[in-house]
Automatic annotation (TrEMBL):
A GO term, aspect molecular function: nucleotide binding
Source domain of life: Bacteria
InterPro entries: Gfo/Idh/MocA-like_OxRdtase_N, Gfo/Idh/MocA_oxidrdct_glycsds, GFO_IDH_MocA-like_dom, NAD(P)-bd_dom_sf
Organism: Mucilaginibacter aquatilis
SUPFAM superfamilies associated with the record: Glyceraldehyde-3-phosphate dehydrogenase-like, C-terminal domain, NAD(P)-binding Rossmann-fold domains
Location of the GFO/IDH/MocA-like oxidoreductase domain: 165-296
Domain Gfo/Idh/MocA-like oxidoreductase N-terminal: 33-156
Name this protein carries in UniProt: Gfo/Idh/MocA family oxidoreductase
């Protein structure tokens, strides 16, 4: 039997969309962009690794971190040259060789470092979640409007994946029918701690565990899935309910290690369930979108479509969706959305960052979408930590 995938037979191949890992947009004539990395922890170093995959587009020329140990770790990534090193981000921003900066600092520092970067006329790749709270999101939005020549991209990288573009199109074209539920998890079986060489550095190194610096599991993990639902459905939640606690690791942390968030999207007749625990890794990353005609089940790099039995009975096959006369099914009864796994989302995101600097166009994950998701994360945490139902306010509506 000939293997047929959802992508190949569905008519979803639209002009301008990426069809495979290797198919890219045209390269703008802006040469190599010199990058400064502000924040050299795990995420900052991870982005540096991806930047090295684009030698004809990016070059890291400067790094910054308040911890000398992080600078030493990051310096090991240098191939032939030595990065200029800074412990103060404002000094890095004074470097005229730096065209754009990547901000991968603790969440509470996203806003002040982003403000300084904009005022220094740098293009900006700002890691998620965009800001620590609602007011910062709205204020940063106003500031960016006063810097129209600078590209500001927010690091919700999964929405750049060809897989997630296809799922968005499936939703828009009604292939899943009426969607009423979204189930998301991002679990791990680990305490999320980093080694601390000196007790005085505990809060700087393990900042994710302390409310002063962090939005916890909702900001660090679940924000990606919340962001995708906002984007794919062109919506935002109106009602926020949550519960959780420090249920696994009694080690002095302040942010919860076990959370469940339920969001209501009344304009779409949709409920979103978003959960994470540090006490079990069986599900890991789980993302299911459930409609009357079928279900999409996503990992970060691959996905399956599972048609409802009613669709099969009505059509005999899912020709209303795929156009195929014969389909090879997985043993669970689904068919792949793409023929092969995609690259890491950061690869696609950085490629787009380069293209948008060349064209001056608004990135898909931009200051407006980033603000919307940052507000969602803050309201979800308000519901979580205050044990209350929280509602979206009209003042939070942001439009390009």
């Amino acid at each position: 039997m000939i293997r047929r995938t959802f992508l190949k037979n569905s008519g979803l191949v639209a002009g301008g969309l990426l069809l495979s890992n290797g198919q890219l947009l045209a390269k703008p004539a802006n040469g190599v962009i010199k990058i400064g990395i502000i924040g050299c922890g795990d995420r900052g170093k991870g982005i540096m690794r991806v930047i090295d995959q684009f030698p004809d587009k990016f070059k890291t020329v400067a790094i910054c971190d308040v911890l000398d140990m992080r600078l030493k770790e990051a310096q090991k990534f240098a191939k032939q040259t030595v990065y200029k090193q800074y412990t103060n981000h404002k000094q890095l921003l004074e470097n005229k060789d730096v065209d754009a900066v990547v901000i991968a600092v603790p969440l509470n520092m996203h806003y002040p470092v982003a403000v300084d970067s904009l005022k220094a006329n740098k293009h900006l790749y700002l890691e998620k979640t965009m800001t620590y709270n609602v007011r910062q999101a709205l204020d940063l939005l106003k500031l960016v409007k006063n810097h129209p020549k600078q590209v500001v991209q927010v690091g919700h990288q999964y929405r750049y994946s060809p897989l997630y573009y296809k799922v968005k199109e499936m939703i828009e074209k009604g292939y899943l029918g009426q969607i009423s539920q979204v189930d998301c998890r991002w679990d791990r079986n680990a305490n999320w701690r980093r080694p601390v060489p000196d007790p005085s550095l505990e809060r700087q190194i393990n900042w994710r565990m302390y409310k002063e610096y962090s939005g916890g599991l909702v900001a660090e993990l679940l924000s990606h899935q919340i962001d995708f639902i906002n984007w794919a459905f062109d919506t935002h939640p109106s009602e926020f309910m949550a519960t959780g606690g420090i249920d696994v690791f009694k080690d002095g942390r302040e942010t919860f290690d076990n959370v469940q968030v339920t969001l209501r999207y009344p304009d779409k007749n949709l409920i979103g369930n978003f959960g994470a625990t540090c006490g079990n890794s069986r599900d890991g990353y789980l993302f299911k979108i459930k409609g009357t005609k079928g279900t999409v089940s996503l990992l970060t790099d691959q996905g399956m479509f599972y048609p409802e039995q009613s669709l099969l009975k009505e059509k005999g096959v899912v020709d209303g969706v795929t156009g195929a006369t014969r389909i090879t099914w997985a043993k669970e009864g689904g068919t792949p959305i793409l023929p092969e796994p995609t690259r890491d989302g950061t690869w696609y995101a950085l490629n787009d960052f380069y293209e948008k600097i060349g064209t001056g166009e608004l990135p898909d994950s931009n200051i407006y979408t980033g603000a919307k998701t940052a507000i969602c994360v803050h309201l979800a945490n308000q519901a979580l930590y205050n044990n209350e139902i929280v509602h979206w306010k009209d003042d939070y509506n942001v439009k390009a």
